[in-house]
UniProtKB/TrEMBL annotation:
Signal peptide: none annotated. This is Sigma-54-dependent Fis family transcriptional regulator. One of its GO terms (molecular function) is ATP binding. It comes from Marseilla massiliensis. The modification 4-aspartylphosphate is found at residue 53. Keywords: ATP-binding, Nucleotide-binding, Phosphoprotein, Transcription, Transcription regulation. InterPro entries: AAA+_ATPase, AAA_lid_NorR, CheY-like_superfamily, Homeodomain-like_sf, HTH_Fis, P-loop_NTPase, Sig_transdc_resp-reg_receiver, Sigma_54_int. One of its GO terms (biological process) is phosphorelay signal transduction system. CDD domains: AAA, REC.
């Protein structure tokens, strides 16, 4: 079933261009030119996402957002407005908008935003993007494992918490394999219902059921010759697991209503944040499917386990969003860097990305501060981490330097920021106290 998007935009030409682009990507799209007509459409038919201009002939996009929130309609919401109208963007973020698109709307960023917010069943690789490469020992080990297994035709199971970058690892495996010139298809298994699983996975023939107006490829057909990434595999229904297991065992499948068997020439990379061992014990996950998927396992560390990556990664996102939002920034305040390091990041990399984007949008000075980051202290201050806020005496200085260097993965510049001293001062004190 297609995801439904409502575009609320009084510029008819722009509205049609956005509609055409989204419909070509497989979304069902309706349009409205003002807030009252948008409300009528929302009452009449539910939507999976709303894309609204701020300034409208009647009402405005932010009032529409507040109306949705007031009625407890939890619909992803994106606002559009001109580059100069940052107060609108700030108000949108504070009102609960999920994202902000400056005009003129960049088509690629539009699609990236829609795909991310809808967690769509299908995503295709975006060539030419610069990806940040983590440098902590734990992250380098993940990279080494991915590079090692990439050219080997075995199924891979990626384990890790939400937001740790499982899809990025899957793409790396694909891009370093012999299948790199063929499709990479990412499937969010949590949206595959029991009723739609056969058609979504294997496709269907025209006339096989009501509404089947043409032959349609399933995910296996879309990924022919390439890699099929099954994200959130632990949420896949038991019957769908049985169908998947049969394809992995036999290497063939038949589209719904079809009469010709097809060969499944795909490589499977799966990922989950679920405890599959517990799922097996509770009969929620098939043990035989687990062994088929886990020919090679890669465990992703949480961001809090990769402290050396936190400040460089935050800097990467700050530069990226400064460019995208046209909000020039130069860095973080020392207090903000300290908070970035002490925060436990339960949402991992995805949470950092969202928080830094919001912070850049709200920043009113070149240095992003703790107020814009809005990270709860949670009692994890420098003192709680073993770092004295104002070291006194040799023992406190030595202990604070050692703790700061450990927290920053040995990076002297970041440790100096955490201690509120220059790198030169830190170096002198390291020599004085014999810290290496």
């Amino acid at each position: 079933m297609k995801k439904k998007i409502l575009i609320v935009e009084d510029n008819i030409a722009l509205s049609q261009r956005l509609r055409d682009r989204l419909e070509r990507c497989g979304y069902a799209v309706e349009t409205a030119i003002d807030e009252p007509s948008a409300r009528r459409l929302i009452r009449k038919s539910g939507f999976d996402l709303v894309l609204a201009d701020v300034r409208l002939p009647k009402g405005d996009g932010l009032s529409l957002l507040e109306w949705l929130n007031g009625g407890h309609r939890h619909v992803p919401f994106v606002v559009m407005t001109g580059y100069a109208n940052y107060p609108d963007a700030v108000r949108a973020v504070k009102s609960g908008a999920d994202d902000y698109l400056p005009k003129p709307v960049d088509p690629e960023r539009l699609l990236d935003t829609v795909r991310e917010l809808l967690r769509p069943s299908l995503s295709l690789p975006q060539g030419g993007k610069t990806l940040f490469r983590l440098g902590s020992p734990a992250a380098r080990e993940v990279e080494r494992m991915a590079t090692l297994v990439a050219p080997v035709e075995v199924s891979v199971l990626i384990l890790g918490a939400n937001g740790t970058g499982k899809e990025s690892v899957a793409r790396r495996i694909h891009e370093e394999s012999d299948r790199r010139l063929m499709p990479f298809v990412a499937v969010n298994c949590s949206v595959i219902s029991k009723e739609l699983a056969p058609s979504l996975l294997f496709g269907h023939a025209k006339g096989s059921f009501t509404g089947a107006e043409k032959d349609t490829e399933g995910y296996f057909g879309m990924a022919e010759g390439g890699t099929l990434f099954l994200d959130e595999i632990g949420t896949l229904g038991y019957e769908a697991q049985s169908m998947l297991l049969r394809v992995l065992q036999e290497g063939t499948y038949t589209p719904v209503g079809g009469n010709r068997e097809r060969r499944a020439d795909v490589r499977i990379v799966a990922a989950t944040n679920e405890d599959l061992a517990q799922g097996i014990r509770e009969n929620r996950f098939r043990e035989d499917l687990y062994h088929r998927l886990a020919e090679f396992e890669i465990h992703l560390p949480a961001l809090r386990e990769c402290r050396a990556d936190i400040l460089p990664l935050a800097g990467f996102f700050r530069e990226r969003f400064s460019s995208e939002l046209r909000k020039p920034t130069e860095g973080f305040t020392p207090e903000a860097e300290e908070r970035l390091l002490s925060y436990p990041w339960p949402g991992n990399i995805r949470e950092m990305q969202n928080r830094v984007r919001r912070a850049v949008l709200l920043a009113e000075s070149p240095l992003v501060g703790t107020e814009e980051l809005d990270l709860p202290d949670g009692g994890t201050s420098s003192l709680a981490s073993g770092i004295y806020p104002h070291p006194k005496g040799d023992a406190e200085w030595k202990s604070s330097i050692e703790k700061a260097l450990a927290l920053c993965g040995g990076h002297r510049g970041h440790a100096a920021a955490l201690l509120h001293v220059s790198e030169a001062t830190l170096y002198r004190k390291m020599k004085k106290y014999g810290v290496k």
